[in-house]
Input
Amino acid sequence: MISSERMAMVDRNAAALGVSTEQLMESSGNAVARAVGERAAPDDRVLLVCGRGNNGGDAMVTARFLDEFETEALLLGRPETIRTDIARENWDALVESDLPARTITDSREFDLDEYGPDLVVDAMLGTGVTGALREPEATVARRLNAADVPIVSVDVPSGVDADTGEAAGTAVDADAVVTFHDDKPGLASLDCDVTVADIGIPDAAETFVGPGDLLALGRDADSHKGDNGEVLVVGGGPYTGAPALAARAALRAGADLVRVACPVPVAREIQGYGPDLIVRGFDGDRLAPRHVADLLDRAADQDTAVFGPGLGSDDATLEAVAEFLAGYDGRAVVDADALQVVPEVDTEAELICTPHQGELRTMGGETARDWRERADLVREFAGELGHTLLVKGRHDVISDGAETRVGRTGNPGMTVGGTGDVLAGVTGALAAQVDSSLQAAALAAWANGRAGDAAADEFGDGLAASDLPDRIPQALRDEGE
Ligand SMILES: NC(=O)C1=CN([C@@H]2O[C@H](COP(=O)(O)OP(=O)(O)OC[C@H]3O[C@@H](n4cnc5c(N)ncnc54)[C@H](O)[C@@H]3O)[C@@H](O)[C@H]2O)[C@H](O)CC1
Ligand SMILES: [K+]
Output
C-alpha cells in the first residue's frame, strides 16, 4: 500500500534516478491498454475520457496502444489548458498521428450515445483530485454511471480520494481500476476489480532517500502546530562546540526558534558565537538529576528536544538523561553518550536515536558490513526498541521497525568530529516540521550528507563540521534535473 503523498515522493525519486515521469506515463498507459485488451472484443468501441492532468495523459498513451479497437480519445477542456508538458505532448502526438481525438469544453456537449462505446476508460482525475468533482467532470461522471457500459478507471476512479476511498461528491463508479506501482489504501473499500500494474519504478526510488522526500517539507503548512518548529538542544559539559553546532544546524534546517540548555560556562562561550541562539545555562559544569525538572518544563513548550551533543558520560549525567526521558512525552532526538540509556528507559516519548555503529552496539544492537544486512538488523532492533533509529555509516540506515530507508549521500571527509552533532540538530529541526519521525530522520541524514558533499567540493577531506550548517539550506532544496 502506498499513500498519494508517498507516491509523489517516489515518482520524483525515480526521476532523480533517471526514470522520468514521461517513461512512467508510457508504462502506465501501456498497462491500461493491456487491461482494456483483456476486457474488450475485437472491433469494440472504446472511449477514453481524458482530464487535463497526468491521469488524462496516461489514457492519451493508452490510445496509441489500442488501434485494433475503434478507439476515440475525448479531452475535457481545451488542449492549451492541459496542465503538464508530458500530458500535452501525448495529446499532440495523438492529434499529429491522426488518431481519433476530440475535445469538449462544456458538459452539455457530452452525449454518450454519440460515441456508443462498448467500454469506457475513465482518466479524468487521478491522485491530483481535491474536493468534489467540478464541471464538466461531474456531469460526465454522472452520465457514465447512468449508462450500462463497463468502466475501467485509470489509477483511481475519478473523484475518489486514493487514500481514503471517499468521494466529496459524485465519483465514477468503476468496474475495474488499473492502479500504478502499488495498491492504494482507498481502493479496498470500493466494489471493483483492482489490478496493480508495475510501471518500472525501481526499488531504489523507495529505499534510497532522494529529492522526492523533500515533498514532506512545506506540505500542509496550515496543519502544523507551530509554524516551523521550536527546538530545545540539551548538551555541553565536557564539550562546548557540540551543542552550538547542533543548534546552528537546527536553525539552518528551518527551525524558527532554537534554544540551548547547557552548563553556565558552556553557555557563556556559546553566547560569544553570535546572536542567533537563545542560550540559558544551568548551574555546575555537567547535566545532573537536579536540572531535570526545569528541563522538562522548558521542553514541554517545544516541538522537539535534542539530547546528547557534548553532554559526556558521567554517571550523574546519564542518570539525568534517563530521568528526563522517563518524564517526557514529546518527540526527542537522542545522540552520542545519551544513547546508552535508551534501551533501559521506560518512556512515552517518541525518540529518534542517531547512533554510529559503535554506539548502536553499546545500545545492544547488531550491525553488519553489508548495508542490506545492516538494514534488516536495524529494522529489527528499532522494532524491539519501539523508537526510530538513524544508524550512521557509509550508507545511513533509518528505520522505525516497519519502514526502512537508506541515505547514501556523504563522504569519508565527514568522519571528522562534530558532523554527528550537526546531524542531530538537523534531525531535531526536521522532526519539528514533518509529521513522521522516520521521514524527518531520513531527510536529515540525506541533507546532512549533501551538505557534507558540498563542503567536500571545497575542502576535500579537510572539511570541518562547522562547514556543514550553512550548507544545509541548499541541501534541503530540490535543484531539479
Ligand atoms: N505517480 C506516478 O508515478 C505516476 C502517475 N501518473 C498519473 O498521474 C496521475 C496524477 O496526475 P496529476 O497531474 O497530479 O493529477 P490529476 O490528473 O489527477 O488531476 C489533474 C488536475 O485536475 C484538477 N482538479 C483537481 N481537483 C479537481 C476537481 N475536484 N474537479 C475538477 N478538476 C480538478 C487539478 O487542477 C489537477 O491538477 C496519477 O493518478 C496517475 O494516473 C503518471 O502516469 C506518471 C506516473
Ligand atoms: K481516473
Notes: Residues 55, 122-126, 153-156, 158 surround potassium ion (ligand 2) (CB under 6 Å).
